[in-house]
Amino acid sequence: MSHKKTAEGMIKCAGPIETALLPRLLQVTEAAAIAASYQMGRGDKNYADHVSVEAMRRTLNYLDMKGIIKIGEGERDEAPMLYIGEHVGTWEGHLEVDIAVDPLEGTNLAANGTPGAISVMAMAERGGLFHGPDIYMDKIVVGPEVVKYERKHPEESINLDAPVVDNLEIVAKALNRNIDELVVVILERTRHEAKIKEIRATGARVNLITDGDLMPGVATAIRGSGVHVVMGAGGSGEAVLTAAAMKILGGKILARLVLPTVANGKSEEAIATEMAEKMPRLEKMGITEKNMHDVLDTDRLVPGNDVIFSATGVTPGTLLKGVSLFGEGDARVNSLTMGSSGVVKFTDTIYINDKEATPLRFV
Ligand code: VTB
Ligand code: MG
Ligand code: MG
């Protein structure tokens, strides 16, 4: 008997969330992206974010599920929409779903009309997503070839605390190329000055981005994208969303909360005060003094097994085109939607508003 996966087999092995909600997830990120795209380049990032949050929330509420936002737009008192803990969906049916959203990832990119803004979200069964605070996480993201290499050479593993050169040597070997043929993506921030120097010293090529470290992370798992590693500190929500994609595509992310340390130039006293303030909130999320410095891998960030992910381009990016608006409220959108059975869809969707006024174009 052959055990080759076929489309039929994959449909059968998809979990209940993937089966019921994958196509609907696409519509949610599409709606958020289209709403944001009307604000592209208008210079108002908060308004662009606001309209995409509202569109995402409205469309999410059509879905028959008991949905809880685990990664969202701030906490209850800070954001009226899609806050952590908010219930979404009809709360009918049997599906209990945890949700991570970033309705407009790269608000600056959208407001400036520059490449890389997306609308993105992921879902998993209850308990399937890391529930963490919105503070920076230090990250490293690599593709599935590296995971395979590590399995064959257990003594050579990517390590968040290792010198950059050690990690890049592993990636280079896994991808069967030289270090100077690698591309490392990192946010251009003063906090990364030392790391950027360290990367350059290895001979690797660097792609400094102004915002949006999530899709480059996804791109490490897609050959031909031109991205091999993502490094540096960025949002924790972005880390969980990246992990959802890595879980589906077989890549790997390691991440750790960035908490105040003496190494960051703070006094012991300042650290104690800051931590005393933060701890009660962190503890509510299950983060304790004991586990707060843990390096979280893909499975700890996304323990779920029925995981779905969708991203829709707002402005053009490496993997996704931006939204095109035409006719009278017509839109064409490009998305990447995938589920843990192993199905990956790149879609090109056209929403026709005025059927008579809009002649459909083939390409
Ligand atoms: C990070 C990164 C995001 O914003 O959250 C960043 O993960 C914010 O970092 O992809 P700074 O506080 O240093 O600006 C993004 O780049 C865009 O949301
Ligand atoms: Mg956001
Ligand atoms: Mg973001």
UniProtKB/TrEMBL annotation:
<dbReference type="GO" id="GO:0006094">
    <property type="term" value="P:gluconeogenesis"/>
</dbReference>
<keyword id="KW-0119">Carbohydrate metabolism</keyword>
<dbReference type="GO" id="GO:0005829">
    <property type="term" value="C:cytosol"/>
</dbReference>
<keyword id="KW-0479">Metal-binding</keyword>
<dbReference type="GO" id="GO:0030388">
    <property type="term" value="P:fructose 1,6-bisphosphate metabolic process"/>
</dbReference>
<dbReference type="GO" id="GO:0042132">
    <property type="term" value="F:fructose 1,6-bisphosphate 1-phosphatase activity"/>
</dbReference>
<dbReference type="GO" id="GO:0006071">
    <property type="term" value="P:glycerol metabolic process"/>
</dbReference>
<dbReference type="GO" id="GO:0046872">
    <property type="term" value="F:metal ion binding"/>
</dbReference>
<dbReference type="Pfam" id="PF03320">
    <property type="entry name" value="FBPase_glpX"/>
</dbReference>
<comment type="similarity">
    <text>Belongs to the FBPase class 2 family.</text>
</comment>
<dbReference type="InterPro" id="IPR004464">
    <property type="entry name" value="FBPase_class-2/SBPase"/>
</dbReference>
<protein>
    <recommendedName>
        <fullName>Fructose-1,6-bisphosphatase</fullName>
    </recommendedName>
</protein>
<keyword id="KW-0464">Manganese</keyword>
<keyword id="KW-0378">Hydrolase</keyword>
